[in-house]
Design a protein that fits this description.
The chain is mainly α. It has a single domain, classed as Hydroxylamine Oxidoreductase, Chain A, domain 2 (Up-down Bundle). About 65% of the residues lie in helices and about 0% in strands. The chain has four helices and no strands. α3 packs antiparallel against α4. It is elongated and about 75 Å long. Bound molecules: heme C. Heme C binds next to α1 and α2.
Length: about 150
């Protein structure tokens, strides 16, 4: 669709993107506004402005809320490490794999799903799993703290 109705043809696949969706917690790209307007002008070749704006608003809400959920879980793991309840090495304890899956797979699936119009990926392959992994992390955190409390004199 890149060159639809005389639009500038490009092989730069990032030109019309607005967020760093790959990151654990996503930030806006430096060309956020320009990129978003360029992409929207393509959508507007076929869709009404109101529909395109609503699509973007909904996708942005998913990015913001996913950011918050991922950050909260990563903060909890970082806190456990600071409390001395995890080793400094990455990937030698189950909770580290759960935290990795949480952002790397489920968080990014939710965010990309939102921008691809994939509600199933936002909800069932994204948010459902984000919640499940968060509960698992909280359970492990609670038992690590309990174990430490009973072992320390
Ligand atoms: C070449 C025309 C064209 C362009 C450009 C286009 N779309 Fe579409 N879009 C369609 C058509 C046609 C459908 C309906 C497909 C169907 O129902 O099978 C559709 C469906 C959709 C739907 C689903 C609507 C619903 O109610 O289920 C969304 C959301 C959407 N487009 C968003 C976008 C966005 C965002 C862009 C720009 C990144 C875009 N489209 C660019 C033609 C286009």
């Amino acid at each position: 669709m890149s060159g639809l109705e005389g639009m500038n043809v490009t092989h730069d696949v990032t030109e019309r993107l607005s967020w760093w969706l790959f990151a654990p917690v996503s930030k806006k790209r430096p060309n956020y506004l320009l990129g978003q307007e360029a992409m929207k002008s393509l959508c507007l070749k076929c869709h009404a402005r109101s529909q395109v704006d609503r699509f973007y608003q909904e996708a942005e809400v998913v990015v913001q809320s996913t950011n918050e959920k991922v950050q909260a879980s990563l903060d909890l793991v970082a806190k456990l490490r600071a409390e001395g309840l995890l080793t400094p090495e990455p990937f030698d304890e189950p909770i580290e794999f759960i935290a990795f899956d949480l952002w790397h797979y489920y968080g990014r699936t939710a965010k990309h799903g939102a921008f691809m119009g994939g509600a199933d990926f936002v909800q069932w392959h994204g948010n459902y799993e984000l919640l499940l992994k968060r509960i698992e992390i909280q359970e492990i955190a609670a038992s690590l703290r309990q174990k430490a409390a009973t072992e320390r004199p």
